[in-house]
Every structure is written in C-alpha cells, then in structure tokens.
Automatic annotation (TrEMBL):
Belongs to the class I-like SAM-binding methyltransferase superfamily. RsmB/NOP family. Residues 126-474 form the SAM-dependent MTase RsmB/NOP-type domain. GO terms for cellular component: nucleolus. One of its GO terms (molecular function) is RNA binding. Keywords: Coiled coil, Methyltransferase, RNA-binding, S-adenosyl-L-methionine, Transferase. It comes from the Eukaryota. The active site is at residue 384. This is NSUN5 methyltransferase. Residues 91-118 form a coiled coil.
Amino acid sequence: MALYSAAAAVLEGLERGAGGVKALVYHSRFPHVRQLFALVSETLRYSAVLEELLAGAALLQAEKKLSPQLAKVLVYDLLFGKGLKCGGRWKALARRHRARLEAELARLKVRQKVSRNEDLLAPAQAGGPGASQVPRYVRVNTLKTCVDDVIDFFKREGYSYLGKAASVEDLRVLSGKKFLLDLHLPELLVFPPQTDLHDNLLYTSGHIILQDKASCLPAFLLSPAAGSHVIDACAAPGNKTSHLAAILKNKGQIFAFDMDTKRLATMNTMLMRAGVTGFQLAQQDFLTVDPGDPKYSKVAYILLDPSCSGSGNTGGFGRPPLGGPWACRPQATAALPAGMVNRVPMAEAAPSAERLQALASFQRKVLSHALSFPALQRLVYSTCSLHREENEDVVGAVLQEWGSAFRCVWCWGGAGQALRGLALTLVPRCRLVDAFPCWPCRGLAAFPGAESCLRASAADTLTHGFFVAVLERCGDGAAASG
C-alpha cells in the first residue's frame, strides 16, 4: 500500500503546485524511485480517462474516504497497469468496484469507437508519432574523459560501434547493442530507444551525461570561450550547466540561479560528480539579479531556458529521474509569479490561450532583462515548447524592443578628411544570429528572419520538441559618413 499512498501524495503535491513529478518523487522517501515515477507518470498520462471512469462509476460518491488522487492511482493499476500490488482494505475496495469500472471502461471505448486502451488517449498523451522512438542520447563529459575512451569502454561491454551517423535516418534504425556518433554534435553518442544506462559505471561516475540531443543545443550554440563569465539563468537540474563547464574547460566562471533549495542541493551534487569547478549557485530569482552588480560586470554569455508549457517534452514521463531534460513547472492558474524563471520537471498537455499569453509575457520580460547585462555578447534563448507564442513571438517582440536605438556618433568627411561633428543615428542594439545552418528544422515565419531560429521534434529530428534562438548584442555601429 505504501506505493499507492506515495503516488497519491505526489499527485496531490502536483495539484498544489508544490513541485514537478521528478522533484516530488525524489523527495517522497519511497525506496523504489523508478517504480513510483513510472506509476505516477502513467497515471498522469491516463488522467483524463481516469476522471471520466471515476465519474461514470460514481466511485468517489460510493467511497467517501477515498481521495481522488488515491482513486486514480488504484483504478489505473487495476484497469491499465499490471494489476493491484497492495493488500488490505484498498485492494478489497478496488476489487469490490471492479465490475462497475470495467463496464464503464467498455462503454467509454464504444462511445469513442476504439478497441484498445491506448486509443483512448489524446495524440499528445499517447506520445505522438515517433515519441517512443527517440533514441537514448549520451553526452560525453569531456571534463573527465574523451569520446574515444567512452567508445572503447562500450565496445568492451559488448556494444557495436557503427561510426558517425550520416543522417537522421541512421539514428532511426538503431537497435540492439549498437550505437553511433551523432551527425551534428561531436561529443554525443546515440543508442537505441529505451537503452537504460543509469546503472552504468560511466554514468554513476559522471563520465557521461544522459541528456537529450535538443537539450544539448543551447550550450553548444552559446559556445562561450574558455575563461568567460557565463550566466545560466534557469539552471536546475544542471545538465546544461555541466555542458557549459565542459565547453569552458572549467576555465572561467558560471553563475547559476534557482529558487528551490532542494533542487540546488541536487544540482550541486550532480555538478560535483561531473567534475565541474568555477561555478556559483544562487537561490535567487533571475529577474531580481541586478545587471549593474559588479559581480556580473564580465558576464559575456547568458543561457536562458525559462519556464514554459513543456509541450515538446514527448518522452520525459517514461524515463527514470535525471535521464533527460526536465520540462517545465505546471501552474494551477494563468498568473505567473516572478520565481517562474526556475524550472521543475513536468509538462502541460494543452495549455489554454490565456496560459500561453501569461507565459509569453513572462518570457519576454526575462529575455529583455537578460539582454540588459552591460558586457553581454551572446545569448541563447530556448524552450521545450512547440507553441509559437512562447518561441518566435517572444523573440520577435524582444527584437522589436531591442532592435535599434538612436545613438550619438562621430561623423567624418571621408577618408583622410577632417572630423565634421556629432550626429544622431539609428543603430541596432541586438540581432538574431543564423544559428547552425546545417540544422534541418527552422523557425516558423512569424517575422522576417525567424528562419534563423531552430526547432526540434520527435518526428523530424528524433529529439524532444525544442526551440532555440541565438542573439548577439551589437556595438555602437559604424560611424556615419557624409
């Protein structure tokens, strides 16, 4: 019964906004984390179906002491899972109503004209095309090892190395104990879907990081020079932060922000295991960070991956904790507190238009705030969202805000001629970079130049859904000539 009580507690915590799935599972103290994570994830996936069954069977009316969360968990395992594992009165209660619940399930299938349980799910809940076929991506942690040594290690463990992939199709047909070097990212290995490496020595020692390919793009495209000062504005759980440290070769300084003490503690453990040095974790909302603080006077690079709807997180529910990117914090209302910069794992299936507008408003605010750091040279904005409102529309609005400004410049008469004086001219303040031209999926045509942005999806790039834009701050521009 402890499993179902723990799962119900996690569901109740989600409804209160106390955290995301992985965070709540981690802190549940239930000894079998993967078992609990799987049960909660599948219950959430079938949540709409379960609510319809509970209403049709009037289970909660018949059993006054049964909470809605516990009822969902029990009915999921009774009808869709591997059968009830508990004993005692809850098992007897569920079995007492089994015939009525099964009859209601049969009626639901007839109404929806389907024959399989899986067919009751909406396309996004069912995983969508290719969601279950997203490969297992393994980023080699170059702070501790190198790609060649990791390849040799897996070959000694019986895996067959097929070389560098030539196309996305090569990744699509991977099976068995075969793996490839990714065609785009030089330190990323690709294994067949569902390959479980959480108990592998390289993972437990921090030599490899299990991170989705799309989640590797932000740090890769930011590409800070060794010795630079970098801000990771939305840092937990730390995969991108450790990637930044590897690119920096542990030379420089990373400032990472998160609001939650427990997530910061988990992140600190992860970064230490990965061999990351030169980082400062701060329990602080990034929006409250003063760009004029001398501490950040040398920050030239910012990675901004703020809270979003998480609609691109196609497969996060099926993976064990820290197995891939963390999607974003669910909120019970459309209003977003300032602390929404920081993220916890959980995706929203279908956010309302009001919710999307609230998210977009927050995202525009935090992106504009990031661009205000005086020494900034390059910024990457990314989300695990598929919605234009959170992606191209946010970038387009901020570019319009930051695109140009009147500045006073010196005017010269021409080559070898005397200084003519000062003049006001309109010069750009930041620009959108044409990032990674070889990437196949580009931004939607929301504004001129939006194709410079990147998109990713399970169907087209065999990754989680993702969006990335690279922006650069401009100088004062060339002096006007007369």
